[in-house]
């Protein structure tokens, strides 16, 4: 991967555009000779797309390639009715196009490729799951059961690739297709019946909001612990991380700075924390290599744990109440409430 600019933006060349279905494409990026593109299965890229009225917009698309099997990274984009980013890319991206991207990020990724996995995907939700499937089959030793819901046969992204993988790994990969035109919309009881024999697997769920609600409702009674159930939601960014500007939020002179202790990468750091400065901005300003991606509270890349004190979040579109109860917050949205705060990335 090319070296990022000072702003953390990489410029990548599109090597190939692959038509996956009539309304979905994959962009295969060229990696310069001697370059490196490090990512984990299930992560995403944030792309800069020209805006409708000048400037640009930022859109996040999951990597469908595997770092264990593919020499070049690729993201898969499905047209969304009225979606500017997806339609612009499907209509305009060609081999040779140059695209600005942020570094790969996201937490929808297995800690280990070993073990057994239950995957539930709806529509374009197959994209990060495909990356995980390819990686587990190449680098792991367990079994994968994939339940994949689509409108009809023509809308099944990666249909041929899934057939090939299942044929190559008959004892390890089972793919169950659910077609709305044949079976109607998936419901909780039907998905639960399909998933129940695999309730001891690690589960990954991704797709449109309605599908996610049904899939999570189907799995909840089966006793999946939080560390075995991973959910990825596609959300729009409220701001453009490629065009961050304006004046920093002013400090409130009536309130003295808080103090934060941060455990990260085996080291502990202690800083004064201005009341109106978000935690991620403070850490980056102090030279701490804290993880992040969208900086808008729409992904979980910057998630950390509050082990002491209290913070408030300006925005949260991704964390569930269980996460909040466990002390998990988004660093990019966190402001101090108490005078002392302890944060852990360990």
From TrEMBL:
SUPFAM superfamilies: 2Fe-2S ferredoxin-like (SSF54292), Ferredoxin reductase-like, C-terminal NADP-linked domain (SSF52343), Riboflavin synthase domain-like (SSF63380)
Domain (2Fe-2S ferredoxin-type): residue spans on this chain: 258-346
Named cofactor requirement(s): FAD
Domain of life: Bacteria
Pfam assignment, any one: FAD_binding_6
Domain FAD-binding FR-type span(s) in chain numbering: 7-111
InterPro entries (alphabetical): 2Fe-2S_ferredoxin-like_sf, 2Fe-2S_ferredoxin-type, 2Fe2S_fd_BS, Beta-grasp_dom_sf, Cbr1-like_FAD-bd_dom, FAD-bd_FR_type, Flavoprot_Pyr_Nucl_cyt_Rdtase, FNR_nucleotide-bd
Enzyme Commission (EC) number: 1.14.15.30
GO molecular function: 2 iron, 2 sulfur cluster binding; 3-ketosteroid 9-alpha-monooxygenase activity; flavin adenine dinucleotide binding; metal ion binding
Keyword annotations of the record: 2Fe-2S, FAD, Flavoprotein, Iron, Iron-sulfur, Metal-binding, Monooxygenase, Oxidoreductase
Enzyme type, top EC level: oxidoreductase
PANTHER family registered for this protein in UniProt: 1,2-PHENYLACETYL-COA EPOXIDASE, SUBUNIT E, NADH OXIDOREDUCTASE HCR
Protein name, UniProt field: 3-ketosteroid 9alpha-monooxygenase subunit B
Organism: Saccharopolyspora gloriosae
